[in-house]
């Protein structure tokens, strides 16, 4: 059976965690394929909130296999904290959680470099999460990275660390005016993590392919969102991984033909954390309304999220670069009580109307969003359990989104809870 990919269509925080937790009922295996603990995926099950940074969002379903793919970067301390938290919540992880031995490890110098680079950028800072994500992926590309398999082999790890620290300490001291890191301290700390991570390490490629061959449903969970993709996002205001559906291929070891469907998660309005262009941003009371009603504060850093109207120019580009087959709409309940809702349907760029999302930052910074207005609804839809139970104005808004993006809405999420979910079309069909 082929795999399905769940991908964020905007700038992250679309509700991927909620949706992956929901669709895991139909899946056998859930694999996270990119990013690190820059992500914060929130699940709300039985009134209890769980925020996951690395562990796949299927973990609260007993018996389902959860895999962390090679395309991720792992901060061992954070990962182990998460393991402890999930266990404390009652989940059994033995034989259920597997971590690719070729995933790269976030080292202490990555976090120091992340902060130092942001300081160096000054007013051009990206607003990173400060978790060492960019420097860890840079080391992977520069072939300086340490992989989980290296960490688990004490001799290999010691040799790599000794060699790397020489170089990294030179950079810390000479470039960033920071004190050097001590080999023994880092080595002892990380070898301690190694002992605890060893039981989870695996060669995940044959594991996932065996599951597919056996007809099991595999769901690939993306982190971040399309506009934070290193190639197709709003560079340089992006993260350092492939956040697109294509990231599932390289980040797990799948061929494009293994993927049957791509489920794009769309928040009913737009949010963004960190710096960078955001054409439909609302710097007024409407933005404040969305932030407060939608509780738009970062699940990882607690930063207030910037809020704005839905941008269908941006979303059409996202549908294109991801090969989206279905949409899941989240958080429309937040829009309830607005008289009218605006949707951006086109941009004006240098006096001309365009339907295309500019790839070049300087152009994107100049666009003026052109809006269409739709009537809002006054009803609280968070208890609706069927499409027909939704107010006509809400259905009209969702239908317009389908039309503008060019993909069908398979699921509407009307609240953070697992049960606050309306299935319209089977996305796995
Ligand atoms: P992710 O990074 O894409 O997994 O999203 P986050 O977890 O960072 O942010 C989504 C936030 O919205 C979380 O607090 C969720 O509990 C919440 N959420 C998800 N779906 C819905 C929904 O349909 N309605 C409301 N009101 N909240 C939702
Ligand atoms: P989830 O998976 C929202 C943003 C940061 C910053 C930029 C680069 O929860 O949707 P980084 O630390 O990755 O180098 O920061 O990317 N960012 C996210 N924004 N949701 C996320 O993940 C994000 N992960 C990174 O705020 O602007
Ligand atoms: Mg998030």
Report what the structure shows:
The chain is about 35% helix and about 20% strand. With about 425 residues, it is of the alpha/beta class. The protein has two domains: about 5-95 and about 205-425, Adenylosuccinate Synthetase, Chain A, domain 3; about 105-200, Orthogonal Bundle (Adenylosuccinate Synthetase, subunit A, domain 2), CATH 1.10.300.10. The chain is built from 13 helices and 20 strands. The chain has a ten-stranded mixed β-sheet with strand order 9-7-5-2-10-1-11-15-19-20, sandwiched between helices. Strands 14, 16, 17 and 18 form a four-stranded mixed β-sheet that branches. The protein binds guanosine-5'-diphosphate (GDP), 6-O-phosphoryl inosine monophosphate and magnesium ion. 6-O-phosphoryl inosine monophosphate (IMO) binds next to helix 4. Magnesium ion binds near residues 13, 41 and 299.
Q: Low-confidence parts, pLDDT < 50 over ≥5 residues?
A: none
For this structure, the quaternary state is single chain
Biggest sheet features: 10 strands, mixed
**Percent in strands:** 15-25%
- Count of distinct structural domains: 2
E-strand count:
20
The helix/strand class is alpha/beta
| Average of per-residue pLDDT values | 97
Helix coverage percent: 25-40%
Determine the CATH topology of the largest domain: Adenylosuccinate Synthetase, Chain A, domain 3
The CATH superfamily label of the largest domain reads Adenylosuccinate Synthetase, subunit A, domain 3
Shape: globular
Number of helices: 13
Which ligands accompany this protein? guanosine-5'-diphosphate, 6-O-phosphoryl inosine monophosphate, magnesium ion
By CATH, the architecture of the largest domain is named Alpha-Beta Complex
């Amino acid at each position: 059976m082929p795999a399905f990919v769940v991908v964020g269509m905007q700038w992250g925080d679309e509700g991927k965690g909620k949706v992956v937790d929901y669709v895991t009922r139909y899946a056998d295996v859930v694999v996270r394929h990119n990013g690190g603990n820059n992500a914060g995926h929130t699940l709300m099950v039985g009134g209890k909130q769980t925020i996951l940074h690395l562990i796949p969002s299927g973990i609260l379903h007993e018996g389902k296999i959860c895999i962390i793919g090679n395309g991720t970067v792992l901060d061992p301390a954070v990962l182990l904290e998460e393991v402890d938290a999930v266990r404390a919540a009652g989940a059994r992880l033995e034989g259920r959680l597997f971590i690719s031995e070729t995933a790269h490890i976030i080292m202490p110098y990555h976090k120091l470099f992340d902060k130092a680079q942001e300081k160096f950028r000054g007013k051009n800072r990206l607003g990173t999460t400060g978790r060492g994500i960019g420097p860890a992926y840079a080391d992977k590309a520069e072939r300086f990275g340490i992989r989980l398999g290296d960490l688990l082999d004490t001799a290999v790890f010691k040799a790599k660390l000794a060699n790397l620290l020489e170089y990294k300490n030179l950079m810390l001291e000479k470039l960033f005016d920071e004190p050097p890191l001590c080999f023994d301290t880092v080595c002892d700390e990380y070898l301690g993590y190694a002992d605890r991570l060893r039981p989870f390490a695996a060669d995940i490629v044959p594991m996932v392919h065996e599951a597919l061959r056996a007809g099991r449903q595999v769901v690939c969970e993306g982190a971040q969102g399309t506009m934070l993709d290193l190639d197709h996002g709003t560079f340089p205001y992006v993260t350092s991984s492939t956040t697109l559906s294509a990231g599932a291929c390289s980040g797990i070891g799948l061929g494009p033909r293994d993927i049957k469907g791509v489920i794009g998660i769309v928040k009913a309005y737009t949010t963004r954390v960190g710096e960078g262009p955001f054409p439909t941003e609302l710097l007024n009371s409407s933005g404040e309304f969305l932030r407060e009603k939608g509780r738009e504060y970062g699940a990882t850093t607690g930063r207030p999220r910037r809020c704005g109207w839905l941008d269908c120019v941006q979303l059409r580009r996202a549908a294109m670069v991801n090969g989206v087959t279905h949409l899941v709409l989240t958080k429309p309940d937040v829009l309830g009580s607005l008289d009218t809702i605006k949707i951006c349907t086109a941009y004006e760029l240098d006096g001309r109307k365009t339907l295309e999302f500019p790839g070049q930052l300087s152009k994107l910074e100049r666009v003026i969003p052109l809006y269409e207005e739709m009537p809002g609804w006054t009803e609280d839809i968070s208890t609706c359990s069927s499409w027909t139970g939704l107010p006509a104005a809400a259905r009209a808004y969702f239908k317009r989104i389908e039309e503008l993006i060019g993909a069908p809405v398979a699921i509407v999420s009307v609240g953070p809870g697992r049960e606050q979910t309306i299935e319209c079309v089977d996305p796995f069909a």
